[in-house]
Write a structure and sequence with these properties.
about 240 residues, mainly alpha, 3-stranded antiparallel β-sheet
C-alpha cells in the first residue's frame, strides 16, 4: 500500500486541489513506513500533519470528497479517519456544515495530558522490568534532544521528545496500551498547543535525563516520576496571543 503525501500548503476553501498531484507511491512519508498501516490510519496521519502544518485552522472545513480526490482513494477511509479525529476532539461534524476543525482550549489540552500521564506511568513501570536497565535507545533520543536544544531548534526538540516517549511506551510490551497512547496523537497535540494556544515551550532535556537514570537503576518509583513529568507539560503557562 503506498504512503500518503505530505500535506500541501493551505488552499482557499473554494479551490479544488490541482489535478497533477505527485502519485502516492512516489511521495516519501515523514513517519515510519505507513504502507503497513490500514489506509484509514494513513489518512488520519495525513490529516493530523495538515493540522500541524497549518493547512486547516480552527473553524475551517475539511471536505471529505476533496481529500479523497487529492489522495486518489475512495471516500470511505477518509470518512473513517475523520470519525477518529472527531473522537480525538480535534474536529466536529454537524448537519449541513460537514466537518470543521475545533477550537483548542487549555482545559481540553489538560484533559488529554491527564489521560496520557496515566498511560505513560503504567508504560514506564512495565518497560522498566522489560528493559532491565538497557536504555541505549532512549539515550540516543536524549542526545538528539540535547543537540537540538543547543541550536535552539524547537521543531527538532519536539520531534525527538515525542520519539523518546514513543520508544518508552512501545517498550512496555502491552499492545493495547500502545494503541491507546498512539490514538492520543501526542505530537499533534504538542505542536497544536504551541501554535494555537501559544503555550510556552518546556525545556525538558534534564527531565528526560532523570527518567533515563531512573530506568537504568530500576527505580521503583519510575512510574510516578513519568506521570509528574507528563503533567508538567499541561501546567505550562500560556503566552499573550
Amino acid at each position: 500500500m503506498p504512503s500518503l503525501p505530505t500535506p500541501a500548503h493551505p488552499e482557499p476553501p473554494d479551490k479544488a486541489p490541482p489535478p497533477n498531484r505527485t502519485p502516492l507511491n512516489r511521495v516519501p512519508s515523514n513517519h515510519a513506513p505507513l504502507n503497513r498501516a490500514p489506509l484509514h490510519e494513513q489518512v488520519r496521519r495525513f490529516l493530523l500533519d495538515g493540522l500541524v502544518a497549518g493547512r486547516w485552522e480552527p473553524g475551517d472545513r475539511i471536505v471529505e470528497r476533496r481529500i479523497a480526490l487529492e489522495l486518489g482513494i475512495s471516500q470511505a477511509p477518509v470518512r473513517e479517519a475523520l470519525r477518529e479525529l472527531e473522537t480525538m476532539e480535534l474536529v466536529r461534524s454537524a448537519p449541513n456544515r460537514g466537518v470543521t476543525v475545533r477550537e483548542l482550549s487549555l482545559e481540553r489540552l489538560r484533559d488529554v495530558y491527564l489521560v496520557r500521564a496515566a498511560l505513560e506511568r503504567r508504560a514506564a513501570e512495565l518497560a522498566a522490568r522489560r528493559m532491565a536497565g538497557e536504555v541505549g535507545a532512549l539515550e540516543r533520543h536524549l542526545a538528539a534532544m540535547t543537540r537540538a536544544a543547543e541550536r535552539a531548534d524547537l521543531e527538532a526538540q519536539i520531534t525527538h521528545a515525542v520519539a523518546f516517549h514513543r520508544t518508552l511506551v512501545h517498550a512496555c510490551g502491552n499492545p493495547v496500551l500502545v494503541r491507546h497512547w498512539e490514538w492520543l496523537g501526542v505530537e499533534a497535540w504538542t505542536r497544536l498547543s504551541l501554535r494555537w494556544l501559544r503555550t510556552e515551550p518546556h525545556e525538558n532535556v534534564e527531565d528526560h535525563q532523570a527518567i533515563v537514570d531512573g530506568l537504568r537503576r530500576r527505580d521503583p518509583y519510575i512510574g510516578r516520576l513519568m506521570e509528574l513529568h507528563v503533567m508538567e507539560y499541561a501546567a505550562q503557562p500560556t503566552a499573550e496571543k
